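Issue 218. Parser rejects a valid record. Input:
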Amino acid sequence: MKTKYQIIKLSERKAPIKGLGVKLLKYVLALFLISFSLFSFSQQEELDNYLKIAAENNPGLKAKFNEYMAALEVASQVNSLPDPQVAFAWFISPVETRVGPQRFKVSASQMFPWFGTLQARENVAFQAAKAKYELFEETKSKLFNDVKAAYYNLYFNKKAEEITLENITILATFQKLAEIKIEAGLVSMVDEYRLEMEINELKNQLALLREKEQFLKVVFNNLLDEESNISVLLPENLWTTDFPFSKQAAIDSIAIFNHQLLSIDFQQAAFAYKRDVANLAGKPNIKLGFDYTFIGKGENNLAGKDAFIFPSVGITIPLYRNKYKAMIQEVVYLEAAKTNEKVSKINLLETLFEKGWKNYLDANRRIELYKTQLTLAQKSMHLLETEYITGSKNFEEILRMERKVLKYNLEEEKAKTDKQAAISFINYLMGK
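Output the parser choked on:
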């Protein structure tokens, strides 16, 4: 059964950078991100639908969501008082008192932690749950990026099949032309042999692409947790939309919205509250209770008077201070480790972003380059065809140009998929 996630937001996310200017930047970036996410090209509707299926079905994402929901339940556990204690004592040899013998005694007590301890524990649990939620969001963003990458790979593989098949058809036409010229004695059989070898190589390449298509479909459908035999609807031509933000805006967005960094922020907040818990652990706990003693009949058959003592008060004495000092120092070390982890993560994200940005710019350049190169190659091919028909050109030049047409056609499509994959990866880093 497919389940839609109903996310419970604990509170508004805290930005790792303070200041009015940064807050303004945060809201402006959020507005742009929301606007961009709502703007969808008709060509992308199928991909958007696949992303929705992945969000509902992917078992890895469901696991992270369940971990988040489990973390929410911890708060209800840690903010509760310890269970009350009830004791019953039966006097085997009744203790004689002035009013009669003591038969049995019932006592009950409740331990109360020091003031603020339960609230501090609850704060730790809530911050830990927020960190789990950000990890869920991180998993979802990564899943969407993986789905898009697999979708683009399927698209390129399909276009490669179409382009290869088209080139086989073109070479088959040349083969018929070569046969006519051979019969007329204008060229030798070498031209036909070359064409036959070229066609055989392209057929082998086409077979490999079709085998690869099955593998890519399995990868894609596993991300969606769908049956591998379900067909994937692909666009006739991949969209070539540009990245909508500047480089600096993307960097700022990563610093504010990246889910890995937000998770670390919430973990740091949890350690701050955990330090409070460690401090409060060194305070005494207070115990309140009562005792009830049943008095039997005394001498001369006089009815005994039961004894009721309330309240009884006690405290725990946190005598061994080294234990509590160690608890506080443990949290200090964990906070320092988490701070260093965040610096390391920022450096890694910066490296990944620069790589993704380089790939984006490179793909943009390649699209323009191969579009121009393909146009020139097609024009050259047309001229060589005409010259070959008139018998003034060697067939070797036609084959060489045909390979360039095939190469530039494939490279242009590869550049288009690389561009969209780079945009998707940058959006993933931005926490979009």
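Fixed in the parser; the record now loads. The domain at 20-57+113-283+318-429 is CATH 1.20.1600.10 (Outer membrane efflux proteins (OEP)).
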